[in-house]
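Record filed below.
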Amino acid sequence: MIVIMWEYMSHIQIETTFEKREDAEKLVDILLDNNLIACAHFCDITAVYVWEGKRYKDPQVLLKVNTQEILYHDCEKLIKKNHPDKVPHILVTQANGSKEYLSWIDGSVKQKSKN
């Protein structure tokens, strides 16, 4: 459960992983087309994990996107709808940074009322 404190946290970074880069790129296109994110970053990684009792070590693509916290639920909904995994990796981190960069994020995403 995410505890939202609007007056303290307004920007977030959402991360998810994909087996195929094409799937990550497709999701980014959807999120950008819906003005839900300002930008995305792709990183090639190796994931080691246990799934249904079996241990795996797989190459994956880590996708990180920057947005406003108020848009998280819309982003999460589209990630789940467009992700090939049964239980997609979705983590959220509060994002602090330069005032200019955070202002750019604000100008790049759709405006949504906090009320």
Summary: The first strand starts at residue 11 and ends at 18. Confidence is low (pLDDT under 50) at residues 3-8. The chain has one domain: 16-108.
